[in-house]
Amino acid sequence: MNQSPAETALSRAMIRWSLTKSTPVAETPRSWIFRVEQNGRNFAALKILKPGASEEEGRGARLLQWYEGDGAATVFDLHGDTIFMEWLDGGTLGEPARNGHDDEATAALCTVVANLHRHRADPPPGLQPLRERFQPLFDTDVRAWPHTARDLYARAAGIALKLFDKPTPEVPLHGDLHHDNILSSDRGWLAIDPKGLYGDPHYEVANAFRNPAGAGKLMSDPRRIRSMADAFSARLGLERKRILGFAAAHAGLSVCWDLEAGNPITGDLAVLPNLLSAYDLA
């Protein structure tokens, strides 16, 4: 019987890394994920990338490996489209944020960012420039946005252009850092699934303002936006207005992505006006 691509990659990985047992955990649009055992004792994870996902996911995997477990899940080895890495089975940082402990979640997020942005030599090659990541925002036809929200698009795109016109020193960026991409472990909170970007460090916290998933009322609360901006600025040494600028620009970018994919945009449209107001007042 012919094996599927996932089965073939899994069989090869089991042999390559002397693994003894595998259990399917999840299938995403970009990968298959298995929990595996080493010598019947220690758990690890195998992430097998699907065809067409290797460019972005490969960038992220190389960045994750570069972090060497400091603020992120440890990558033990990479081979082709298979990532052999630390198994994390704790809850996500989204859980405390959704359950009345958002300030504590923000503090934990600050710690993760500080660890990820710690100086390390020789960033991995092939990271995507942040300006390139934002190209869909600049290329989108404003008529794709609802008529009543087109002023929001213009503001978000204008802020993004202003930010890129005044660059700051650039660093490797996780690029998709939000509450549900941070898992608890016996080593503390650890990031997973980076996008592998390179650019302004103020962007790293942008996605946190429109997360965690399922907490729409919390995300659109102006007091929460101000509180998060205060915490990120104070704890990470970042410029408050620039943080809020990237948060608003990223929300606009997310709307463009969702419009192209045919996904709902109501969540970002509820958050974006308040992000813009906070940016204006900063």
TrEMBL record:
GO molecular function per UniProt: phosphotransferase activity, alcohol group as acceptor
Pfam hit, one: APH_6_hur
GO biological process: secondary metabolic process
Designated name of the protein: Phosphotransferase
Protein species of origin: Devosia oryzisoli
